[in-house]
Specification:
Layout lengths: L4 H27 L6 H26 L1 H6 L1 H23 L4 H7 L3 H13 L5 H18 L4 H5 L5 H19 L8 H25 L8 H29 L1 H5 L4 H13 L6 H18 L2
Helix pairs in contact: 1-11, 1-13, 2-4, 2-10, 2-11, 4-9, 4-10, 6-9, 7-14, 10-11
């Protein structure tokens, strides 16, 4: 039976909050890319998020302690795949590719989620959802191409693009795996996931330091890491995990093209990038696609 419309409204809003938080993620990462190496950015994002969440999640962690011990390998896998692996590849890749390519490749989640959901969960999609996906991707293409097909024709994959595609694949696996998430309370699950992500990021951070990587500590870098720790790491994950459980990975995955829309808005607001007519056209196409894919 399809979920009543009022029961789908909250998960849909949560997906939009997650998309807005992750749209800011790439703006913050680009802002500090010259001051903070990628593995340092990943480690400090997760470490600070763990420290901020621990006092809030402490009661749930105590109540779920037996479950955490029983499901520790699975919880570590969630942290490795959906936390450390995704951000390590993403922040590394952004240093070697263009912002245009990064925006496009981070909109590719449905292209991974749909076949994985079909293979592992036997989920199918409707013609309306396929049309909505095409509409959303057309909106993303409008934004990243500046309204010109010649820009898209000149796109070429480089090693940074491949790293970003690898990160998108890991996020798709995490999204589908939520079907089998251990039965922990929400904050317990989130804390164990992000603390595992910090632990798995630490060896790469130490290797980066050993190789001569240095991090510039300034008000700007501290603000960027604080944003990454609070919104993309805590707020977005809570919203995403709840919405995926309520709507399924396919519907949630179709919201991924909204992320570059928010990313563009944040870039215009905080980085001073201009807002063009093709941005507005892209926003309208993505919004139309989300309406089609989120309706039953």
């Amino acid at each position: 039976m399809p979920a009543p419309a009022q029961h789908r409204m909250l998960p849909t809003l949560l997906l939009l909050v997650a998309a807005a938080s992750w749209g800011g993620n790439w703006v913050a990462a680009r802002w500090v890319t010259l001051d903070v190496p990628p593995f340092a950015l990943s480690f400090w994002r997760w470490a600070l998020a763990s420290a901020l969440l621990l006092p809030v999640a402490a009661a749930q962690l105590r109540a779920d302690a037996p479950l955490i011990r029983r499901h520790l390998p699975a919880l570590a896998a969630f942290g490795l795949i959906g936390g450390a692996g995704f951000t390590l590849l993403g922040y590394w890749g952004v240093r070697y590719t263009t912002a245009v390519n990064a925006t496009l490749l981070n909109s590719s989640l449905p292209l991974f989620v749909v076949p994985l959901s079909w293979w592992l969960l036997k989920l199918t999609i409707s013609g309306r959802q396929l049309a909505g996906l095409a509409l959303s991707l057309a909106g993303v293409a409008s934004i990243i191409s500046a309204g010109g097909l010649a820009t898209l024709a000149r796109l070429a994959l480089n090693p940074g693009d491949l790293l970003l595609l690898g990160g998108a694949l890991l996020w798709a696996i995490y999204t589908v795996m939520l079907k089998w998430r251990p039965p922990l309370r929400a904050l317990s699950f989130l804390f164990t996931t992000i603390s595992s992500a910090a632990a798995f990021s630490l060896p790469f951070y130490l290797l980066e330091i050993h190789a001569g990587g240095t991090m510039t500590v300034s008000p700007g870098t501290v603000a960027a890491i604080a944003y990454l720790a609070i919104f993309p790491s805590i707020v977005a994950y809570i919203c995403w995990n709840h919405a995926v459980m309520a709507l399924g990975p396919n519907v949630a995955g179709f919201f991924n093209p909204v992320i570059p829309v928010f990313g563009t808005l944040f870039a215009v607001t905080f980085l001073g990038e201009p807002l063009r007519l093709y941005h507005l056209a892209g926003f309208a196409l993505v919004l139309g696609g989300v309406v089609l894919t989120s309706r039953r």
